[in-house]
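Quick start: read one record
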Amino acid sequence: MGFKIWLPKSDRERVKAATSYDLSATLVDILPMNYNDATIRTIEQIDVIWLRGRSIARAFEIEHTTAIYSGLLRMADLVALQPDINIPLHIVAPEARQSIVLDQIRRPVFSLLETGPLSERCSLLTYANIEEIAAKPDLVHMRDTVLDDYQVFAH
């Protein structure tokens, strides 16, 4: 899809070891953005960020076994610090955690953001969704909007 990818420095080696893809040309070492320090510190902690040029295209928090709210807090922090940011936000989790993720996204604290409820901006993508997308033979020619067909919102 042509994105550069940001991963937190603490996760990079683990991710590289877990994938068969060569990420060397895709990973960025420094976020190419002009946000304030608080925003940069928040963005740097998000599990996966897809970058198009100097802009964030999508942000993902992977919630396999960790507390779901920690990833949601990072997403909420990003939206609170940069209310004009308008990007898709995703929680990626196993299918077995779907109802828990959607319940957490609907928590009252996440409904009081200046720009509206996080549930309107942050969706769930399951591991099965990601595997299905990754298996598409023409994935390299697709746009990131293919994710929109798989995401589930907590309305």
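The CA atoms of residues 27 and 119 lie 29 Å apart.
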